[in-house]
Amino acid sequence: MSSELDEAIDLLDKAKTFAKEYMSKYDASHDYRHVERVVELAYKIEAEEQKRNPSLLFNHLIIALASLLHDVGDKKYLKPGEDPSAMVRNVLIGFGADEKLAQDVQTVINHVSYSSEIKDPSIVLQRIKEHPELAIVQDADRLDAIGAVGIARCFGYTTAAGRGPLDEGIVHFHEKLVKLESMMKTPTGASMARARTERVKTFIEWWNEENGANTSP
């Protein structure tokens, strides 16, 4: 058992170092601090869900690794020739991870994003049945997209990506951010999302008031 624990700690240390270096080329909306917040949120959701229902079984190592590496291969920052569907798996195997663990983490990561769920919600729900850790990591990532931090990240990405005026950020609020609460997969995530979504809605009201016009679609 001690050997397994040591191996897990070593793998996590290597994953943290890799993630910190990999995310250093991203803008502030998807930097390593975002990763740290997602990890913190995932641990909190996992703990609350297990407290709520002790019969729930989660693989903590999968949650930890998938939270750390969930933005590796993000299509918004992908380099030509990179295959995002296997990047994390290959990295973990290179770090000495068991092949099944590496593939399980990759599967979770491949289904975390909002865009993947919009394309086919049924596939995501099926993957959650097979990998309940996905619900934890996905909720954690979405929580960091709303609330005060989410507002800052949205404007940060709008600016970094050169998407035009700040109004484009508000459009994104309507198109995605206010919808995330209804897409949370855990009771804990849904409860945390409620308060953060109200902050986003309040900000939209302030924005419209100060701009003298309603920028909703």
UniProtKB/TrEMBL annotation:
Signal peptide: none annotated. SUPFAM superfamilies: HD-domain/PDEase-like. Residues 27-155 form the HD/PDEase domain. InterPro entries: HD/PDEase_dom, HD_domain. Pfam families: HD. This is HD/PDEase domain-containing protein. It comes from Microthyrium microscopicum.
